[in-house]
Amino acid sequence: MSTKSLGRDFYARNALEVAPELLNRVLLAPGGRAGRIVEVEAYRGSDDPGSHGYRGRTKRNDTMFGPPGHLYVYLTYGMHWCANVVVETDGVAAAVLLRALTPLQGLDAMYTARGPAARRDRDLCSGPAKLTQALGIDGDLDGADLVSGDRGVTIADDQEPPPPSPAVTTRIGLTNGADLPWRFCVAGAADLSRRSGAS
Question: Is 23 exposed, middle or buried (0-12, 13-18, 19+ CB in 10 A)?
């Protein structure tokens, strides 16, 4: 696979610009595992009640306020890791949640990591907690630099362009900010966490 890591300038933009342009990019993780991004959600700070940064900076969300182009990894429900791409500028809480991937490389390792819950390829990365488990992404990768690949994780362009008309819906699993249409998907992708329900 011929890929080129996305540069810092790619991430240093509004979350709503970056999110749909992450679609069809390739997430590369340690151990040779990789998947194509097919579903994301944008999150912002003070103007987004669904965001971790809405109420200000804490130890948990500190990476989200950091410079763009880093990985923000947090634990949800006390048991599942979720991976986000930090965007915009240093000091602004903005990130894009990686919700689903189409597996590309290292599928044997992904099946091992996912265990008996994965019976088919679609079970590997069709959700934010599934993809982190499949790719071995956990809290140790919080703050990893996606541009330099300092911890073996990066996002790359393999010349598959983002869809010209992505599916757009409201975000999933939120109480606050549930009305914002900030979920973007590759329409028809087999590995979405839920059907796209395009507006």
Answer: buried
